[in-house]
Design goal:
two-stranded antiparallel sheet, globular, 2 domains, TIM Barrel, lyase, schiff base, alpha/beta, 8-stranded parallel β-barrel, single chain
């Protein structure tokens, strides 16, 4: 009798998708002891490259049994859920200051400052030491440099945040690079060594992480680019949870293009469908993640702008169709909208109850007025911090559905869209 083992293939509708289970076969023979079952391994590097490894077994096949796989998070599961709920707390959102040194340098150059570590530290100290910030901000995403920095008085930025009940977070991706075989699209690198980096960030005090990849509508998007984005986010999320960090899942659909809002909705539904498929395939704990989606808007070059009500309707439609209610928080990115637009659109989405905490994770839409008020001058620090509190409070009210837009400055109304924007 031949002795074989079988591996069940993925569903026929998509043979490239990795399966959650490996099937193994065994047969009991009455006239001799059962021989050890052969180990079955399959390397899942990406959905496009997953292959079934050849299997050898000392047993003939008769009955398949399913191998159960535990969810990500392990011993951190309760902490992950608690962290996510803290970040997704009423009236609060995320301050994103995770720009790379190069991007931060561009911001500093706009006010005539050199891109030095001293100047980057000074600007981030201005932001993080703002008294009362914790009333409106629940988490701050930091760049690696900032996670290990301290104030000029010697207090670590991590401790500054903790004192205001603000969760420290960390950007963990390594940026975008061209995706071979695509239509001039990108993929996000950084999985190599991610587990060890996450472990070190946790020791330093970080409790959540961020990974940003992008999807371009003018470039398609191709099925390859969407799958690569979704798979990378899922692998990152599982690794982050395994090391105690709540993953923020961010497939940014760029504003670039002249398409209408209906096209954005179509692409967003496709992208988030793929993302949640692969999150499930990687056994990610949904209660221990946060999302950072783009709002569903027309392309930046579309001939007609959409109202906050239209943006809210289309965005919430997409979320209700694709995002399970187990996810605790939706923390929108601003994506180049003006400070005022980002706040008004968020407010429109909170005019009725949602199954998730619907809030913000803004960078430029919280910092633009602050930077221009500061101008790199020590005597302007207090005024710049007041400008930050104005924007933080406005978005806090928007999260509660109570923002009116009264008294906004002309600066807040200026758009910040940059074609092909990178961090």
């Amino acid at each position: 009798m031949h002795k074989t083992a079988v591996v069940l293939p993925p569903p026929a509708t998509n043979p490239l998708r990795p399966s959650l289970f490996l099937a193994v076969a065994s047969e009991h023979r009455a006239h001799r002891p059962i021989e050890p079952m052969a180990m079955v391994t399959a390397k899942l590097s990406s959905p496009a490259t997953a292959r079934l490894a050849p299997v050898r077994s000392a047993q003939p096949a008769r009955r398949a049994s399913l191998v159960r796989v535990r969810a990500s998070g392990g011993s951190y599961a309760d902490e992950l859920v608690s962290t996510a709920k803290t970040v997704a707390s009423p009236g609060r959102g995320i301050l994103a200051i995770d720009e790379s040194s190069a991007t931060c340098g561009k911001r500093l150059a706009s006010i005539g400052l050199d891109n030095t570590e001293v100047n980057r530290q000074a600007y981030r100290q201005l932001l993080l030491t703002t008294a009362g910030l914790g009333e409106y901000i629940s988490g701050a995403i930091l760049f690696e440099e900032t996670l290990y920095q301290s104030t000029t008085d010697g207090k670590t930025f991590v401790d500054v945040l903790k004192d205001q009940n603000i969760m420290p977070g960390i950007k963990v991706d390594k940026g975008l690079v061209p995706l071979p075989g695509s239509n001039n699209e990108s993929w996000c690198q950084g999985l190599d060594g991610l587990a060890s980096r996450c472990a070190e960030y946790y020791k330093q005090g970080a409790r959540f992480a961020k990974w940003r990849t992008v999807v371009s509508i003018p470039c398609g998007p191709t099925a390859l680019a969407v799958k690569e984005a979704a798979w990378g986010l899922a692998r990152y999320a599982a690794i982050a949870q395994d090391n105690g960090l709540v993953p923020i899942v961010e497939p940014e659909i760029l504003l670039d293009g002249d398409h209408g809002i209906e096209r954005t909705l179509e692409v967003a539904e496709k992208v988030w469908s793929e993302v949640f498929f692969y999150l499930a395939e990687n056994n990610v704990l949904f209660e221990g993640i946060l999302l950072k989606p783009s709002m569903v808007t027309p392309g930046a070059e579309h001939k007609e702008k959409a109202s906050p009500e239209a943006i809210a309707k289309n965005t919430l439609t997409m979320l209700r169709r694709r995002v399970p209610p187990a996810v605790p928080g939706i923390m929108f990115l601003s994506g180049g909208q003006s400070e005022l637009e980002a706040t008004m659109n968020l407010n429109a989405m909170n005019q009725s109850a949602n199954p998730w905490h619907v809030s913000f994770s803004y960078a430029r839409a919280l910092q633009n007025s602050v930077l221009k008020t500061w101008e790199g001058q020590p005597e302007n620090i207090e005024a710049a911090q007041k400008a930050l509190l104005v924007r933080a409070k406005a978005n806090s009210l928007a999260q509660l559905g109570s923002y009116t837009g009264e008294g906004e400055s002309d600066e807040a109304k200026k758009g910040m869209f940059q074609k092909g924007y990178t961090y």
